[in-house]
Amino acid sequence: MLKLFAVGFGLLLVSGCASYGVIDNAELTTESTSQPYSIRALAGKGGSGDIALTLAFSGGGTRAAALAYGVLEELRDTTVMIDGQPHRLLDEIDNITSVSGGSFTSAYYGLYGERIFEDFKDDFLVRNIERELLHGLFNPLRWFSSKGRTEMAVELYEEHVFHDATFADMQRAGGPLIVINASDLGYGVRFSFVQEYFDLLCSDLSSFPVARAVAASSAVPLLFNPVVVKDYHDCKPDWLVNSAERAANNPALAPIIQGLETYGDKSGREYAHLVDGGITDNLGLRAIYDVMVLSGGAKMFFEQAGRKPPRYSVIISVDASTDPEPLMDKSNRQPSMGETIGSMSSVQLHRYNDATILLAERSLTKWVQAVSTADRPVTAYFPKLGFTDFEQPEQRHFFNAIPTSFALSEEQVDRLIEAGHELLRNNPDYQRLLADLGGAQSSRLDGGH
Q1: What are phi and psi of 378, to 5 degrees?
Q2: N or C: where does the chain have the smaller number of CB atoms within 10 Å of the terminal CB?
Q3: CA–CA gap between residue 110 and residue 45 (Å, rounded)
Q4: Helix, strand or coil, per DSSP, at residue 308
Q5: How far apart (Å, rounded) are the C-alpha atoms in residues 353 and 360?
Q6: Which of 330, 338, 340, 198 is nearest to 274 (CA)?
Q7: Pairing between strand 271-276 and 203-204?
Q8: Whole-prediction pTM value?
């Protein structure tokens, strides 16, 4: 990716052209009749109702996408008994929240369902995306174009991965709610591609391309240009008004509301510039927290969704972040600018990830306590998957050495997929869930798939 950045930056200097974001979000009008792709409309619509299962896919390029894919395969291959009936855990997924590399897997599954197990590896995981982007950068026709590097990425994702699909197509697919997350570069707001957030822009999400949302979620600043969306005429959705009233007595809610209300400043904000979701949350977990807090808590959330609280509340965090050994410490040579920036970013990322995990863990306990009753207790499970779970040094070294890249070898991809299986299957909290569900049968371990 550094090579991609260097070439792109060099060509940008040669061309001397300013680039402009392509505006692809339509204004919300009274004629917008399609059912919204929204949290309120879709939350809790999948599964049996006894399990609230949310997956959170982190950033990390193809490494994150492949690890998340392995977790989906393991859920597909695991059958549990609910009320005496067999259910695949894959079918119990209610929501997937994702950032950056993890958004490729979540969006593909949201659009195509189980076709992901047939096509996704060739369509994306073993595809050398970086090489194809480099070829595009060397195209002289692009050197003097007003479109930025991100537009080239969007076109590539449209053609080979998402095939011009929009969020209306995601809605028709009927799968779990997919929450693709980006970061607002101007104000540091975490931005989710659901209709509730598009209401802040007075915009209709249904016609917005999925490839563009994923490109925003993975648009590393400087390497890619922001995805730009237009902030249309004044809108203040009812849910924001209600949340703002509660914020007066809720110090945790107030900063979230303050950020979201910036979209109402139409004189100062004609556009929003969206970049990598990992900047505001590299684990995808804060989207869950924000939804619950904005809803007024877990009890009110389930009431608004028209769903009784589940008996099992599960959040599976799939963290593909790495902790590579710093080579600078093997010599007294002064570290390069790239090494310095990388180390600084890594330190901040891990500290922020730790804070996010702690927030999610405490919040899940609080939410479960709020909706539990004597006759219907709710049990919480929070399997946290990461490469640090591997006991063997060889395994940890192998995965920590995989770069944050969109060009991995087939061996790296295959081992990452298997890691997704292994990390989930061996996770103690996940094993506790399976035991509480009366045991589980894995078709993978029994010779299936």
Answers
A1: -115, 130
A2: C
A3: 14
A4: coil
A5: 10
A6: 198
A7: unpaired
A8: 0.90
Structure tokens at 271: 């556009």
Helix (H, G, I), strand (E, B) or coil at 2: helix
CB proximity list for 214: less than 8 A, separation 6 or greater: 103, 104, 107, 157, 161, 162, 180
User: What is the secondary structure of 118-171 as a DSSP string?
Assistant: HHHIIIIITS-HHHHHHHHHT-HHHHT-SS-HHHHHHHHHIIIIITT-BHHHHH
Q: Which two tokens stand for residue 174?
A: 């009927």
Could you give the C-alpha distances from 160 to 156, 163, 217, in angstroms and in order?
6, 6, 18
Cα-Cα end-to-end distance for the chain: 34
Distance, CA of 145 to CA of 70 (rounded, Å):
39
Left (φ > 0), alpha (ψ -120 to 50) or beta: where does 49 sit? left
Position 269: which residue type?
R
**Count, residues in the chain:** 449
Phi, psi torsion values for 81, nearest 5 degrees: -105, 125
Distance CA 397, CA 323 (A): 9
**What are 238's two structure tokens?**
């009812």
How far lies 91's CA from each of 43, 49, 109, 350, 366, in Å? 14, 11, 12, 32, 26
Q: Are 27 and 66 in contact (CB under 8 A)?
A: no
Question: Under a CB-based contact definition with an 8 Å cutoff, are residues 290 and 257 in contact?
Answer: no
Q: What is the pLDDT of residues 204-262, one digit of tens each?
A: 999 999 999 999 999 988 788 899 999 998 788 999 999 999 888 888 899 999 999 99
Question: Confidence band (pLDDT; 50, 70, 90) for 15?
Answer: very low
To 5 degrees, how large is the angle CA 347–CA 5–CA 323?
A: 25
DSSP assignment letter at 362? H
Tokens of 140: 């002289």
C-alpha 153/C-alpha 411 separation (Å) is: 25
Banded model confidence at residue 14, pLDDT cuts 50, 70, 90: very low
| Gap between the Cα atoms of 437 and 443, Å rounded | 17
CA distance 323 to 400: 6
pLDDT band at 341 (very low <50, low <70, confident <90, very high): very low
